[in-house]
Amino acid sequence: MLKCKHQSALIRPSLTARSVGLKVLTGHGAAVDTTTAAGKLVFGIFAALAEFERELISERTVAGLISARARGRKGGRPFKMTAAKLRLAMASMGQPETKVGDLCEELGITRQTLYRHVSPKGELRPDGVKLLSLGSAA
Description:
By secondary structure, this protein is mainly α. The chain has 2 domains: 4-70; 83-133, no CATH class. The chain is 62% helix and 0% strand. The chain has 6 helices and no strands. The chain has helices at residues 4-17, 37-70, 83-93, 100-107, 111-117, 126-137. The protein is elongated. This is Resolvase.
C-alpha cells in the first residue's frame, strides 16, 4: 500500500484532471470539500497530519525495539529445537533402530528441523553447531 504523500501525489492530480472532487457529508470531516480552495487546504492538512502520525508511530516502534534489545529481550518466535533436544537427537540418530518419525514426535519438531540440525548418522550440521554455541554462551 502506498503512503499518503505518494497517494496524494499520484491520485489527486488524476482526479482533478477529470474534475472529480471529494465532499464529506457527515462526521468529523464534514468540512472537507476538495472542489473548493478551503477544502483542498483542509484535505492537504489532514493528509500531512496522517503522514506525520505514521512516521511518529514508526519512530516509536524502532525506539522500542532498540530499547528492548538493550535490555536483553529478543523478538520473534522461540526455536523449537533446543540444545537438550539436539543432544538427544544426535544420540538417537546414531543408533540404527531409531525411527525418525517417532523421534520427531517425541521431541516436538518436524523432520525438516531434525535434518537441518543433525545428519542421518547423528553428526552435527551447521545449524546444530550454531545452536550449541548459542546454548553454551547463555
